[in-house]
Amino acid sequence: xxxxxxxxxxxxxxxxxxxxxxxxxxxxxxxxxxxxxxxxxxxxxxxxxxxxxxxxxxxxxxxxxxxxxxxxxxxxxxxxxxxxxxxxxxxxxxxxxxxxxxxxxxxxxxxxxxxxxxxxxxxxxxxxxxxxxxxxxxxxxxxxxxxxxxxxxxxxxxxxxxxxxxxxxxxxxxxxxxxxxxxxxxxxxxxxxxxxxxxxxxxxxxxxxxxxxxxxxxxxxxxxxxxxxxxxxxxxxxxxxxxxxxxxxxxxxxxxxxxxxxxxxxxxxxxxxxxxxxxxxxxx
Length: 284
Known about the structure:
Layout: E1 3-6, E2 9-14, E3 17-21, E4 37-41, E5 44-47, H1 53-60, E6 71-72, H2 74-90, E7 101-104, H3 108-116, E8 127-133, E9 159-165, E10 173-179, E11 184-185, E12 192-195, E13 201-203, H4 210-235, H5 239-244, H6 246-263, E14 277-279
Antiparallel strand pairs: 1-2, 2-5, 3-4, 5-12, 6-11, 7-12, 8-9, 9-10, 13-14
């Protein structure tokens, strides 16, 4: 079954696959996009297009929800998801053991796998809601495609991740977040019908190799900053300044090394699924 219809919504099948998410560039400006990691996904179904005004209007006739498809909050989303879940279990869709499937917004892994496999239509400037909680980087991200929950307390627990599409290039995206405890304008949604992940969780390790990164930073600060800072006056015939003004040269070299680290450092390793951190759980 390559596609299915539910409550007037069309879903396309995405076959099990792997997708790589994140960035492996070493510069500090890419820290929020690291680490690059593999996500392995089972078969699932996703809406080809985000929910349209007409589709939501048709459903909202049966439900007491706002028919604006660009405005969402947690309450409105849950009402619609509960409705779709009921329709799914009462339908004659040929899926074995429907209790092991769920309907929700896509996780980050599911969304990017669908885009990579050309199963979804996206629009420039769009902001699409994901089911993942917000986070500052990919540490702790789920490597089996299940949504990542926010870990902590405070107002950020009510935020959800949003994928934003470049104004002119659909293959360039960025992640941000929105608060779901109040209405949000300019947000679109699409849904997935996906297997409930069971068993142990495999996720990106929470901690990086601090000492390895520290050694790399020290090395390249010397190579790109401190050594050239002392070498330049020597090669220009001002060797005495290399000894008399060493404090200034050292400080200048450190500044150059620091600034260079923002834009370039050697690429960080990609974390494969087998290298993920396994967390045993009895409750999903």
